Fold this sequence. Notes:
The complex is a heterotrimer of chains A (371), B (365) and C (285).
Chain A: E1 2-13, E2 21-32, E3 36-40, H1 47-55, E4 62-67, E5 70-71, E6 82-85, H2 97-107, H3 112-125, H4 141-153, E7 159-163, H5 171-188, E8 192-196, H6 199-205, E9 208-213, E10 216-221, H7 223-228, H8 233-238, E11 245-254, E12 257-262, E13 266-271, H9 277-285, E14 288-293, E15 299-314, E16 319-325, E17 328-334, E18 345-349, E19 356-358, E20 364-366
Parallel strand pairs in A: 3-8, 3-9, 6-7, 7-8
Antiparallel strand pairs in A: 1-2, 1-4, 4-5, 9-10, 11-12, 11-14, 12-13, 14-19, 15-16, 15-18, 16-17, 19-20
Helix pairs in contact in A: 2-3, 2-4
Chain B: E1 4-13, E2 16-26, E3 31-35, H1 42-50, E4 57-62, E5 65-66, E6 77-80, H2 92-97, H3 104-117, H4 133-145, E7 151-155, H5 163-177, E8 183-188, H6 191-197, E9 200-205, E10 208-213, H7 215-220, H8 225-230, E11 237-241, E12 244-246, E13 249-254, E14 257-263, E15 273-277, E16 283-285, E17 293-303, E18 306-313, E19 318-323, E20 335-339, E21 346-349, H9 360-364
Parallel strand pairs in B: 3-8, 3-9, 6-7, 7-8
Antiparallel strand pairs in B: 1-2, 1-4, 4-5, 9-10, 11-15, 12-13, 13-14, 15-21, 16-20, 17-18, 17-20, 18-19
Chain C: H1 6-33, H2 38-42, H3 55-62, E1 64-67, E2 70-73, H4 76-107, H5 113-122, H6 128-142, H7 148-173, H8 176-184, H9 189-200, H10 202-218, H11 221-226, H12 234-237, E3 242-243, E4 246-247, H13 249-278
Antiparallel strand pairs in C: 1-2, 3-4
Amino acid sequence: MDMLELRGIDKVYRSRGKAPVHAVRALDMAVEKGEIVALLGSSGCGKTSTLRMIAGFEDVSAGSIALGGRRIHELPPARRKVAMAFEGYSLYPPLTVRENIAFALKSAQLPRAEVTRRVDEIARLVEIEDILDSYPRAISGGQQQRVSLARALVRDADLYLLDEPMGQLEPQLRAVLRGRIKSLLAERGMTAIFVTHDQTEASALADRIAVMEGGVLQQFASEKELKGRPANLFVASFIGEPPMNLLDAGVTQSDGGFRLSVGTDMAFDINGAGLDSEAAKALAGAPQVRIGIRPQKIVVGTGDVRVKVVSNQWLGDQSHVAGDCGGRMLIAVTSGRVAARPGDIVPFALEPRHLHIFGSDGTCIRHAEVS
Amino acid sequence: MARLEINAVSKAFGAARPADGLSLAVEPGEIVAVFGPSGSGKTVLLRMIAGMFEPDDGDILIGRRSVVGAPPERRGIGMAFQNFALFPHMTARDNIASGLRASGNEVASRVAAISKLLKIEHVLGHAPRELSNGQKQRTALARALIGNPDVLLLDDPLRNVDAKLRYEMRLELPNLLRRGTAAVLYVTQDYREAMAIADRIAVLIDGRLAQVATPADIYAQPASVAIARLFGDPTINLAEVSPVAEHGVLSADVAGARMRLGAADGAAPAGACWLGVRPEDLAVSSASSDGAIAARILAITPMHEKAVLLLRLADGTEWLAALPPDAPQGAADDSVFVRFTPDAAMLFDRATGLRIGASPRLKAA
Amino acid sequence: MEHSSLAGRIFRGVALTLILIFFMFPIVWIFLMSFQTNEQILRIPPRILFEPTFANYEALISGQLRTAAGNLQISFMRNLFNSVVLSSAAVLLALLLGVPAAYAFARFKFRLGESIAFTLLSFRFAPPLLVLLPLSLYYQELGLNDTYFGIVWVYQLIALPLILWIVRGYFEDISPDIEHAYRLAGHSWREAFTRIAVPLAGPGIAAAGLLSFIFCWNNFVFALILASADKQPVTVGALAFVTASGIQYGQIAAAIVLSVTPTLLLALYAQRYLVEGLSLGAVKG
């Protein structure tokens, strides 16, 4: 069953003397009960406007929002049964951390023992037990963010909205808290939508990620799907850290397939038998395509692509090797240490089955066979 | 060519001591990253070198000459700031050229050269407010680099640029900074940035240098548990253990399982220790065996190309495992068994937090 | 939320109009009065339509005031000149002293700094008469009574705190790193002050200068006590129209119009300049 349903949502900001800003365009999205969804994009992509429309802080310009079968887009925020954690925390300054977290529960007239139990439980989860009696101004930014998260998650709501929920967390705590929160949401079957610009956070927490750009939903899929089968060039280059290597390639037909040549330095043979008819047609009609390969798919030390090492950085658990190949930069990531210095010539292996192929308009012609 | 030398420098602001007997030398052409949690005194150190305030105690030398007491403009320092600090009423070109005292022709050619290197030739005529954050930072870097200063100070310069640009600059910066012969101090709060850019990393904790070493050494052989926790994402796993030495083998109970921690040469560490194991050094499988810790998967959070598993060990401790993408991961709520090899174990003294002896990992390497 | 109801918009329009009329009406009325004779002004009920006369302005400019009691010499143009000289000189002096002081208060923490800054501001709280009595006594001792310098000096009580506090805020808004960067580029602190801090605080300095000019211009009581007729500004000069044969409303109105015009023009000119300079974007964001 769909818990949340967005239908044809548009958001246009009009201010006098300025051109109207079309922040969200024709957005359709359905979120299942118990699902965790990330709205991911760079600033100005429309993700925060979308969240604020669901919460009720912004009107929709067009379209409808339904939550648990109720049409909510005309209701005031307080009657939508959503809980929200704000990016700026918005803690109540005159209340202690405990009172902040308990505020909504007390308004809901829960018994006092129950309130205490739930506050203590969530406080343990986000590691704020020792500051429950402090006031917001006396605690650090990271702690305030954890309190803000706790205040949202402690409530009973149909939907949990989290705006950049973990951006300010202490790096040492981040991975553990992500795991705990994901486990809590799953255990209780809570439905959550969170906004983030950090794809690491999106892929860590979310079951599905909605990638937005220019007010338009580019793709709404699991992290695996986004990486393995990106809908277009934007998603392909946006998702993945470091970003996908992208190269311009010329297309020539060869016996039983196609040959993609990148300058005179690299060439890849694509077997025609492995292509579906549409991809074959697209390749036959395109003299020029963009090919992409993920840095993690390039093998360093073997292969027939010779690159001149520009930088080789060991980060403790992985090496990032940047190499120049005929004026093009290729980045490879391996889990082992690579013994190469800037200036060395090193072979890179790029396999045709790892290539994503995009048309000149950014649409995807073929995905990598193995992701 | 001048060496930067910081000798027993201290500074106090009221009760806070952001610098407490700091000593550090940076050779010409070397990049040293000053890394530490926020509030550890990184920026204060940089600002003392730049002459924005003077140390209470100790000396700062550039090329064997003490610069304490000298005004900032006579120290031969180039600096890039976290907030860019461009002159808003000047074009990018004038910003970059502001430090040059030379003829018009020479200024023009040097500005052209440095802006080509930093790929900002097309925006030289723009005012700072017309530049993107990435362009602002490149302009600020050009301004710091153009005078070929003896000492280059970079105060978390990539903090305010977006992730993609930050990654690009991380690759580009070391080559850019090594062009001259400046001694470079690079402040950052991101351990990956420090490891990627620096020749050596100086770990600053509470106004003291906790360790100064190459990036690989710090990661593999952190001097203390606090340092081990600062390097690595996800953070290193810790467990309280009391190791015992038997038949030349050092081992300890970890959440009910007897784990080998390496060869015992000499006496076993006395009393309680922290055991540290990095998440990427854990192996997780569904099959039980000796020397495996029983655990339950609480959640799986993919990270970069890895799968990060939040595990609850038999005794309730939470550990993280970072598995390669092709490893079988299981699902949340699965019961699994966790292993690590003895050379992955690090031991730290429970009281002082310092790493004990030569780590088993060292001997294995 | 951004769209308000029709009723709301109507209410807002009506309220704004009422407020505008309340504040603008006296100004319009004074302007109209300045083109009327005393008889026209004192007629009841007053009329909006009348035959305008320039007699008031003529009298002011020629310095001859014809009243029922005979011809009276007035020195309004002299007063106007005094106002310009006194206010400009006072503001210039205050800027010269106040801008560096504001910079010092903004950038350096020194002992008693806050107390000194606050004491300077507190001069604005005290009723002028409180300081005037002792001041007039030792002005006489020092020979400052009835001199331009003496009045300019006493005007510092008005202008200096204003400039100090406004400009200090502007200096504090400039990131110190911008000046640090300029110094590391090889410039002395004086250069950093004159080439970075002052230009960046320019709009603030202009605003403070303008405000203190208006306050000096409008001051009445200092010059009334400390200066004689030939050093007095327009505010005091207007007293001359309260003659033995009655109050010369027409001339007073014309005098007010004439004396308000310079400050009004200045404000209009500077407003454009102030808005231009306010968005800088030096630091991130």
